[in-house]
Amino acid sequence: MAIKRRIDEAEGRAALRAWAGAYRESSKPARPVIAMAVRFALEELASRAEGNSVEVRVPPFGVTQCIAGPRHTRGTPPNVVEMPAELWLCLATGNTTWDAALQTGQLQASGLRADLSAHLPLIEYP
Fold first, then answer.
1. Which is nearest to 111 in space by CA: 55, 63, 66, 73?
2. What phi and psi values does residue 44 have, to the nearest 5 degrees?
């Protein structure tokens, strides 16, 4: 079953491109651009890796469930990935790798299915 997108794909890609451009120039885009880019990338992950066994959290902007496997129904999910927005966007756009992100100490991943490396990058922007 396909996920229901809340962000228009063209607008989401534009926000992600805007973030990537700012990242290359070492500047920081406006908070609404970051928020839309994060949420779009989370939706893209959920659509490519459908499922409910892993929860990906990017506070304060969004959360999604993905990866096929045992369904989580209540309490803290057994497979959780949490990171700051900039790190998530770097992973989503191919500006960093999963292993490099783990080494920063900003990426928290718990559970057997919490490795997203097979699904990243989502969209590459040089």
1. 55
2. -65, -45
